[in-house]
Structure formats: C-alpha cells, structure tokens
Amino acid sequence: MRFDDDPKIPEGDYIPGIYNYCNRWCERCMYTDRCMTFEMEKEIKMEIEKEKKREKSMEENKDFWDQVNKTIEEAAELIDEEIPLVKDDFSSFDDWDDEDAHEAMREYKEKHKKARNQPLSKVARKYEKTVHQWFKDRKETLKQHYDPETKDFNISYTGIADEAVLKQLTESVEVILWYEFQIEIKTQRAFSSLFEEKEDPGLWKDFPKDSDGSARVASMGIDSSIGAWNYLNNKLTSEKETIKPIIRMLLWMKMEIEKEFPGAKDFVWPPKLD
Hints:
By secondary structure, the chain is mostly helical. The protein contains eight helices and two strands; from the N terminus they run ααααββαααα. Helix content is 59%, strand content 4%.
C-alpha cells in the first residue's frame, strides 16, 4: 500500500453521519450502500489484501527504512538550523495553557467516573462478566468454532444435531457476543453526554442529543440480546435456570434506560432526508 497516495472519497448517495449511532456490525446492516465509512473501510481492506499478496524483498524494506531515517534527520536539521523554535511560533495556543489542559482533563475524568458509577452502568458491567463466565463454564458443551481463513463461526452443543437449530443457536450466540461489551460502552457514553448536555444545554441545541443516540444503540443491543438469550432458553432446556437471571438483568436494564433516556426511543437514525 502506498501511504503517500491521496485518499479518495468514494462517490455515492450517502446519508451524512449515518455511522455516528450504529452498532458497527456492518455484515448485518441494511444501510451499507448509504454509508461512506463502510465504503472507505472496504477500500482500505482491499488495499490491505493487495499488500498481503505483494512480495517484498528484505532490500526493499531496508531502503524504505533508510529513507524514513533520512527524512527524520533532515527534519531535525531543518528545525535546529533554519527554523529555530521560539515561543511566538505557538502564540495561537497562549489561551490554552497547562492549567487549562489539566482542568479539562479533570472535568472529563469526573464525568467519566460519574457515568461509570451510575447503577445502570454497573449492571451493564455485571452483565459483561456474567456473560463471559457463562460461556467459559460451558466451553465443553457449547463449543465455539471459528475459522480465521474463511471467517466462518458456528456453534455445536452436546445432544443437539438438528442443523436448523444449530444455525439459529450460532446466530443467537453471535448476537450475544457482539453486544456483550457494547451495551456498557454505549450506556456509559450516554450518561457522559447527558452530563455535558445538562452543563451547557445551549451548545447542543441545534444538534441531536448524543445521549439519546448512544442510549438508543445500547437499547437496541439490549433488545437483540434478550431475543438471543430467549432462544437459548427455549432450546437449551438444561440451562433455563442459569439463563433466566441473565434475561431478568437485561429486562431491568431495558426498563432503566427507557426511564433515564426517554428521548432515546424517538431518536431517528439514520436521519430522514428531504
């Protein structure tokens, strides 16, 4: 891949900012043909695949790094000899001193800590740990098979041979694992954004609330996870007593997120275009 090439913006009928409130599961998305990020990432992946196939000799690599080192040395000489650094070169940053930076970081950490300590965030983290432990305890009966070459993922379960059931089990487990961490991440972001919006409501008045958008993504993950766990509950009859508490946890989170972020259910994404 030539890193000095100018990146090309793909052409197409894209929805502006559609990627801001997505679950990043492109393989399951209905809007990839309207998403610029998807197209750009696809181009990057194609270039990476080309790079993997391109054979490079050790001499070519050596020449490359020699050239990099040479440009670094030239830049250092330029700064030392031709462009001596003086304070005035950075006058535009005078209003942003170390104290301001420390204060901004302190405020950010406080909001982050406050968001992390919300009961809903704590339960979401508990859900993560519960899911991880549940699958770990069943690694001998509910086996996950992943082929890195084909990217195929499937599930096998002791005592189940029906291919249709195994296919649905695979898809359900895939959903659960996809949202396992995302629910807590989006929930915490929703609270952090909510605190910022309350602190300076005028700053965000002309924009969709990030708190509602993030809560919406978390809520969608919760709903999908409830459906997936319910399928496991119906098919893995010996696991009903271990799955029910997990579903209760998700239902509680669903109820709380709707209470904390009532605008999330009305958050429209992708936005409707005129």
